[in-house]
Design a protein that fits this description.
Order of helices and strands: EHHEHHEHEHEH
Radius of gyration: 14 Å
Strand order of the largest sheet: 3-2-1-4-5
CATH superfamily: 5'-nuclease
Helix content: 40-55%
Number of helices: 7
Structural class: alpha/beta
Strand content: 5-15%
Distance between the termini: 22 Å
Number of domains: 1
CATH topology: Rossmann fold
CATH class: Alpha Beta
Shape: globular
CATH architecture: 3-Layer(aba) Sandwich
Length: about 140
């Protein structure tokens, strides 16, 4: 299953526990495929550097390296018109369209309100875990 993770989800999964961390566990266990664009990866790197200053014990560079080597990265053209209320979020929609990915996992209201655009499901991390991860018998979380 191909998914795109909004920056808030990937950073929460790296720096804290909870549903975003479970999503990263599912990715590390090859239960889901992460889809990125160059623009999304750039944002991940930029935000991780800011968070690393607050949480220097987290080996964020190792995780970014894993993302680069174990995700599918696309060169994605920008959208011709903005879809999201926050045009900075359009990169996630553009990546989904270009890669044929039908699921974006996000906690961002600006993305959540465009759920269904171009048949793309925008879903919160907890909902994704409940719907797609915990119901698969080969993935068990306490």
């Amino acid at each position: 299953m191909k998914v795109i993770l909004d920056t808030n989800v990937i950073m929460s999964g790296i720096f804290w526990s909870g549903p975003p961390a479970k999503i990263l566990d599912a990715w590390q266990n090859k239960k889901i495929d992460l889809i990125l664009s160059v623009d999304i990866l750039d944002e991940y790197i930029r935000v991780s550097k800011v968070l690393y200053k607050k949480y220097p014990k987290v080996k964020v560079n190792d995780i970014i390296d894993l993302l680069i080597t174990n995700s599918h990265i696309y060169n994605v053209p920008s959208l011709t018109q903005s879809i999201s209320r926050d045009k900075d979020d359009d990169k996630f929609i553009a990546c989904a369209i270009a890669s044929g990915t039908k699921i974006i996992i996000s906690g961002d209201d600006d993305l959540l309100v465009i759920n269904g655009f171009n048949d793309i499901l925008v879903i919160k991390p907890r909902e994704f875990i409940d719907k797609y991860i915990t119901h698969h018998s080969d993935i068990i979380y306490a």
